[in-house]
Amino acid sequence: MITNIVIAGLGGQGVVKASDILADAALAAGFDVKKSELHGMSQRGGSVTSDVRYGHPEHSPVLSPMVPPGEAHVLLVLEPTQVEVARPLLHPGGLLIGPELIEPGALKNKKSFNVAMLGALSTGLEIGELYWQQAIQANLAEKLHALNAQAFALGRARGPS
Amino acid sequence: MTEERLLLSGDDAVALAALHAGVRLGTGYPGTPSTEILETFDRLGGHAQWAPNEKVALEVGIGSAFAGARTLVTMKHVGLNVAADALFTATYTDVDGGLVIVSADDPGMASSQNEQDNRHFARAAGAPMLEPIDSQQAYDYTWLAFAIGERWKIPVILRLTTRICHAKTVVRPRGVEQRRSLESHETSTEHGKTEHRFRRDIPTRVMIPAFAKPAHHRLRQKLAEIAAWNEAEGPMQEYGSEARDQDGDQPAPKLGIIATGVAAMHAREAAPDARQLTFGLTYPLPLTRIRAFAAQVERLLVIEEGDPVLVDDLNAAGIKAEGKPMRYRFGELNVERARRIIAGEDSPEPEPAKGKPPELCQGCSHRVVFEALRDLNCIVAGDIGCYTLGVLPPFSAMDTCVCMGASIGVGLGMRHVLPEAEARRVVSVIGDSTFVHSGLTGLAEMVYNPPPTGHLVLILDNGTTAMTGQQEHPGTGRSLDHSPTHQLDFAGIAQAMGVQSVVLIDGSDKTLSLEERIATQLARDETALFIVRQPCVLAAPKIRLYEKAAAGERERRCAALPEIDD
User: Fold this and answer.
1) Which is nearest to B502 in space by CA: B521, B529, B482?
2) Domain count, chain A
């Protein structure tokens, strides 16, 4: 089957970066992957969502790059005001991971909040931790690696089991 | 193909293919969703440059192709309107090097002023058009576009859309040994070399009527040959079950879908069991193949994003095809909309939840300008860029926005016909990159046909093409790769043109308020240009780095100069 994940937030929060990391991790884990979002105007502080879909490359390759509305298995929301905005994207039986999971004071740098949220997401996905670490390193400057590895670990400890 | 699996956006896939195919020159003008193609091509080591606008980019591209070099020209859909003058005659000419024009359309208008469908341009200009369904095809069709273009010496349009440009999908690039060479290059000793020499060929390149008349006949002949090639060897995929009944007969499946571009992916997901025909060369069409497909199904449905281009072509050719209800002409398609089209569902769709709209950044240099224009109750002719957000609260200080550069002409038009008291309130607002793109001719119009009350143009010069992600332009003094080059002097240009009042304003200078300056100018019957200069708050740190690097380079060069004794 195809796994559908939507990450939602506001422009500047690192929604697209988080989805890049997730997509790279899924690719490294051997899945067929597609991801999609809108650029441009939305970067100016507006609502942003990014769709990531993955499946077995032979048995269930991904077709459309967009998650159909109401069919996200997991909805990861980085900003409290966007929870209700994005909720219609979630499948009725899907999992919502909201920003209240990680209190801002728990992180050394609040810019790594998106990666902490990925840590929380990671516990429910069949993607090995090694692939996550590689993807984080591939998508961030080296000086940020240690900080984000900590943020990921913190999120992973709080993720739904 | 290699075992290498890369997760690439369509834009990056085009850039990688251009690099692998040995493209000598990439040129274009930034525009969402096309911008990343040239940026990536540059980052990978290709020669990429921003042109002042899309028309100049295509003209440079035509010259490069006439000189025998593989050339890539990129733009967003509305950019092709600007370049159309060049396109419509370039298709009459013989280009030696492959000339591939990327048109990145924006159905749904994620970041555009309209959702025009550039498939019409292929038909109107007589340019073959390729449309990939994912990043792998974006990579493959870039190669194919060069092969078709060089075989028939014709410019080829590679049409992408937002969900092709910006969606990331898996790409397996060609192995090293398969790169650079194309069929036509292998049979020609002149091509495939990095040196390109001028070859004089006046009748195919000088489009005076005596040469253009036979050239038009040649174009139609080329398109007929390309259509025949498309029927025989064109890129095509057929999906769906080959179900047979107990007697081994093959009953006609009820539903057959024809879909192109990303819509083909939505349609396959929406109706996995339906027969589906998808083809990559969408102009000229493989009508014989489509007719054969149509004969095998009971219901032939065309699922296409945007205008009813394909369905109209099929029906005009006598292939009875069903299109989508009008409501699906607006906006992007997705799997859910494809399901509705297949089900013949024409009831109102659920409204997507309203998110937070974008806004001018905190600390944005444009904010103070729109506060002043709002407080002065100006009639503001606006333009295309971040500053178009001045139309939204709390500013609500923009009254028109049409196309690149329109602020100046539209403002002048209003000044000519409005009663004097209202005419005096009219101001044109344009960004620095947009001014270079299409504002210079507007300025010429202002000094040539000045309204009785004069006019005021504001260039909001934030030192970058901000909206598309902070690209350089001729006004920044830096090339695409941020290295120093000649910088246009806006004030000097305006003075040389004869603008009566030219004022350079430091946006951070609070000694004289912008509001007072504008109010004073509006009372005068002068033509005026205010250049309000303050770097984009997002770009400023990078601009400082570029300037520092350039200064360091200058010092090194000066130190290396031999000393001269007088």
Assistant:
1) B529
2) 1
Q: Is B420 helix (H, G, I), strand (E, B) or coil?
A: helix
> Which amino acid, one-letter code, is at B203?
P
The CATH code of the domain that includes A10 is 3.40.920.10
Judged by CB atoms closer than 8 Å, whether chains meet at B358 and A86 is answered as no
pLDDT at B269: 97
- β-strand B455-461 against B527-533: which pairing, if any? parallel
pLDDT in tens, chain A (161 residues): 999 999 999 988 999 999 999 999 999 999 999 999 887 555 677 899 999 999 999 999 999 999 999 999 999 999 999 999 999 999 999 999 999 999 878 999 999 999 999 999 999 999 999 999 999 999 999 999 999 999 999 999 998 87
Provide the token pair at B294: 């149509």
Provide the ipTM.
0.96
DSSP letter assigned to residue B322: B
* Separation in Å, CA of A47 to nearest CA in chain B: 5
Answer whether the bond into residue B394 is a cis peptide, omega within 30°: yes
What is the span of the domain harbouring residue A99? 3-158
A-chain CB neighbours of B349 within 8 Å are none
Choose from A39, A52, A59, A78 for mutation: most chain B CBs within 10 A.
A39
Taken in order of first residue, the domains within chain B and their CATH numbers are 6-233 (3.40.50.970), 236-242+253-342 (3.40.50.920), 366-551 (3.40.50.970)
Q: What is the model's pTM? A: 0.95
Task: Please tell me if residue B3 touches chain A, with a CB cutoff of 8 Å.
Answer: no
* B356 chain-A contacts, CB cut-off 8 A: 10, 45-47, 81-82, 85
- Asked if A65 and B167 come within 8 Å (Cβ–Cβ), the reply is yes
| A84: closest chain B residue by CA | B353
Chain-centre distance for alpha carbon B64: 19
Amino acid at A151: A
